[in-house]
Amino acid sequence: MANSDCTFIAIKPNGVQPNLTGEIIEHFEQKGFCLIVIKLIQASEDLLKEHYIDLKDCPFFAGLVKYMQSGPVVAMEHYPQQ
């Protein structure tokens, strides 16, 4: 499996805080994705600015970074089942 076959998925704070993480992961697994890495993180401002660099000129960028820092994020990598 080439690394480019992996899909990055983030469960944002509004999915983590009401305990929807399990349901969201199950949804992706039912769609044929295999979970290979999962990590609960509190994303730093620097990490978020780097991750969303392509949106830096959008008027909502600062709000997006602030929102993503408002709670924990579940970061995952999946790959399609073969």
Which helices and strands occur, and which strands form pairs?
Layout lengths: L6 E5 L1 H4 L4 H10 L2 E9 L3 H7 L9 H8 L4 E8 L2
| Range of helix content | 25-40%
- SS elements, strand count: 3
Count of DSSP H/I helices: 4
What does the overall shape look like?
globular
Major sheet: arrangement of strands: 1-3-2
State the distance separating the first and last CA atoms.
10 Å
Which residues sit in consecutive blocks of at least 5 with pLDDT less than 50?
none
Assembly state (oligomeric): single chain
What would you call the structural class?
A: alpha+beta
Strand content: 25-35%
Q: Tell me about the biggest sheet?
A: 3 strands, antiparallel
Order of helices and strands: EHHEHHE
Radius of gyration: 14 Å
Name the average pLDDT: 92
GO biological process, one term: CTP biosynthetic process
Enzyme class: transferase
Keywords: Kinase, Transferase
InterPro entries: NDK-like_dom, NDK-like_dom_sf, Nucleoside_diP_kinase
